[in-house]
Structures are given as structure tokens and as C-alpha cells.
Amino acid sequence: MEISIQKAGSLKDLPDESELAFGTLFTDHMFNMDYDLDNGWHNPRIEPYGPITIDPSTMVLHYGQSIFEGLKAFKTPEGEIQLFRPEQNFTRFNQSAHRMCIPAFDEEFALRALKELLKIEKRWVPSAPGTSLYIRPTIIAMDPFLGVRASYTYRFFIILSPVGAYYKEGFNPVKIWVTEKYVRAVPGGVGEVKTAGNYAASLYAGEEAHHKGYTQVLWLDGVERKYVEEVGSMNIFFVIDDEIITPALSGSILSGITRDSVIEMAEKWGHPVTQRRISIDEVVEAHKAGKLQECFGSGTAAVISPVGQIKYKDKTLAIGDGKVGSWARKFFDAITDIQYGRTQDTEGWVHKVD
Ligand code: COI
Q1: pLDDT at 256
Q2: Of residues 68, 90, 295, the one with CA closest to residue 161
Q3: How far is the CA of 10 from the centre of ligand 1 (A)?
């Protein structure tokens, strides 16, 4: 398929890189593509960034048939632009599409379209430490219809946003709150799918966490409310008595690409990660016994985020004396060195944009 290109008449001013937050600014152009039953995915185009005009009855607004991805483009010291494991994002995007009754798209084509867009938006990839260009591919249901069924028409779009750290804490330890009252996902549900509703469902507990002075919610399993699942914007790892542990993928946990990168690196370094069920009581006990050495999250937006405090019921677990743990630091350095092209990519994880 040919991608048509319509350039913006005037270009925005670039932001001050030292002041970049997360997800507040958008570039000059976006990628769009449509789906209908007669034509399949068609009319791929790069256009000026701008609003999508939709009918108030558009299905995505009512029933949330919507999926997204998150990945990043980085600038190397040589000024080249590169992506980190983008094929993994498009594979997961199609898995999300399948679960949400959205028609599959051609993953290779989507990656080509993204690279075309990035070539046009190159000047937006920041180079200040810790900054990158966040990429948000999204698909939404477009039928103007109020019956509950899968839509027959869709819009696929990709928008780009220059970003700094996801958390205001940056790479400093965050505080997380364990909710026993609310759950994010249940077996057989859509917890492992990157769909809008999962995030909407997390907001209420997120507000409670903020009121209590915590950055994020740590979710437990939806059946027994006993086993640790994820943080919602990241997967979670514990280091207990020198064992690195992360909850096994259960269907209700997002299969994070940064999570997978941590696991692969640890394996390569001869210190494999144990993927298993881990109960919150085990974490509390390990803390009591002085064996909870570290806790950190992993995600595209957050990269590696050390956790300095966990609140569960009336217990406050302080971890690592407010300092960044050595494993969190090691994974953060190793992953970002590859992402920013400061080290050789021996894993084949990096895709150059041109
Ligand atoms: C990401 O890490 O890219 C995410 O999608 C998490 C969040 C910003 C929704």
C-alpha cells in the first residue's frame, strides 16, 4: 500500500527539552488509516496532526472498543533515530485487536508507516538525557451506532509526543499503595490487553492512592486478592534474598516488552528471573525478615522505576533506604544504553529509522 503524505503548512516551535513532561505535547504530523468491510485497512496517510471529527454516536465513545500501544524513538550520540523492539509492540497490538474483535492489520506495514512518519518528524526526537519521542499507535471503533456489537469500521492512528520522565520522581524511588478493595482484572477478562477500559477501571483506586500520598496502585489478583499482579502502568519485580521474582503472566497481567527485556538480560547475566505467583504476604514476610532487598517496576513509559515504599493495610514497607537498588540501576543502565545507542545492541532489539 502506498502511504500518501500531506505536509503541515506551518510547523510548531520545538519545546525546551529540559522541561519535557509526559504526554503533553504533540508533533506536526500523524499517521491515519481506515478500515471498512469492503476495503479492509485502506487509505494510509500521513497528515498534519489535528482533531478527529466524530459523530456523537461513534461506538468507541460508548462501548470503549479501543486499543493502543506505547513505544519510543531515541536519538543516538551520532544523531541517528532508533526504535526499541517495535515489532514486539505491533505483534502485541494485533493480539489486543484480536481480543477486542478489531480486524488484524499488517504488522510489517504498520512498522514501515511508523518509520515514514518518524522520518518526517525527526526534528522532534529530543536528545536531552532521559528524553525520547513517545509513540502512541491507537485503533478506535468508528461506526455511528448504539447497539452493542463489534464495529464494522475503524480508525488506526499514530501520534508522537516528545517526553521526559513518566513519574515526577524521575528515577528516584516511587511509593505504591496496595488496594485490597478494588481489582483491575480477572481471569478470562481483558487484563493482558492494552485496551482503554483497563485504564478507566484503574482510575478510582488511583485517585485514592494519590489522596493517600502514593504515586500508583499495586494490584492484587481479582479472585483471592492475594497475589501481586502489576502496577497498571508497569510490571513489577521484587528481589528477595538475592532471587529476582516477577509475577508469571496469568492472562490478567500485561505482557510488558520492558519486562521481557529485563528477563532476557538477567538470563544472559546468569541470574535468571523467577516468574511465579508471589503473594503480598510473602512480600510482607520477606520485608519483616530483612530479605526484601529491592522492588522496581518496568514499562515503556517508566523504563525502570525503583519502588521505595509499599503500603499494604496498616503496614508500610520501606525498601532500600530511599536509594535506588543495584539491580534497578543495572537494568536501567543496560536497557537505556541499548535504547540510546550508547552500547552495541547484541540482542538485535534496535531498529534504525533510516
Ligand atoms: C507505556 O508504558 O507505554 C504505557 O502504555 C503505560 C501508560 C503510559 C499507559
Answers
A1: 97
A2: 68
A3: 30
Rounded Cα distance between 185 and 222, Å, is: 6
Give φ, ψ of 46 to 5 degrees. Answer: -105, 125
Q: Grid coordinates representing 59? A: 461506538
Per-residue pLDDT tens over the stretch 158-186: 999 999 988 777 788 999 999 999 999 99
Instruction: Please state, as a whole number, how many other Cβ atoms lie within 10 Å of the Cβ of residue 311.
Output: 18
With b meaning 16 or more CB within 10 Å and e meaning fewer, what string describes 242-271?
Answer: eebbbbebeebbbebbbbebbbebbeeeee
Q: Would you say the CB of residue 254 lies under 6 angstroms from ligand 1?
A: no
CA–CA gap between residue 63 and residue 298 (Å, rounded): 30
Ligand 1 contact, 258 CB (< 6 A): no
Distances (CA, A) of 135 to 68, 85, 122, 128: 10, 13, 13, 18
Pocket probe for ligand 1: among 163, 215, 300, 304, the residue whose CB has the most ligand atoms within 8 Å is: 300
For all residues of the chain together, what is the average pLDDT? Answer: 96
Identify the residue whose C-alpha is closest to ligand 1 atom 5.
70
Domains by residue range for the chain, with CATH = 4-164 (3.30.470.10), 174-339 (3.20.10.10)
CA distance 225 to 180: 6
**Distance separating alpha carbons of residues 333 and 327, to the nearest angstrom:** 10
Q: What is the pLDDT of residue 165?
A: 83
**Closest ligand 1 atom to the C-alpha of 166?**
8
Main-chain phi, psi angles of 92, to 5 degrees: -65, -35
Check if 299 has its Cβ closer than 6 Å to any atom of ligand 1.
yes
Closest approach atom of ligand 1 to CA 299: 2
**What does 306-322 look like in DSSP terms, one character per residue?**
EEEEEEETTEEEE-GGG
Q: Evaluate: CB of 70 within 6 angstroms of ligand 1.
A: yes
Q: Are 84 and 74 in contact (CB under 8 A)?
A: yes
How far does the centroid of ligand 1 lie from the alpha carbon of residue 69, in Å? Answer: 8
Q: What's the gap in Å between 231 CA and the centre of ligand 1?
A: 11
